[in-house]
Design goal:
elongated, mainly alpha, single chain
């Protein structure tokens, strides 16, 4: 009969972090990929550079709020 798996708390913390990154990665990448067409066209439109900068700023704020909220209390 095989021995039961025993995980140390340190290993579980590492696995938890890997799982959080794996779950958040698509959430972070999809909006950026969706914004690529806008970021390629906006600079050629009137006042498009300002709009592109606002779009990137909104994406940065979105990412930082997701990553800050996902940190575990240690």
């Amino acid at each position: 009969m095989p021995a039961p798996l025993v995980f140390s708390p340190r290993l579980l913390v590492g696995l938890q972090r890997v799982l959080v990154v794996a779950l958040l990665l698509p959430i972070l990448v999809v909006p950026l990929v969706a914004a690529v067409p806008a970021l390629t066209l906006l600079p050629f439109l009137p006042h498009g550079t300002d709009s592109a900068l606002r779009l990137l700023g909104a994406h940065r704020d979105y990412m930082s709020s997701l990553l800050t909220g996902s940190r575990s209390a240690e």
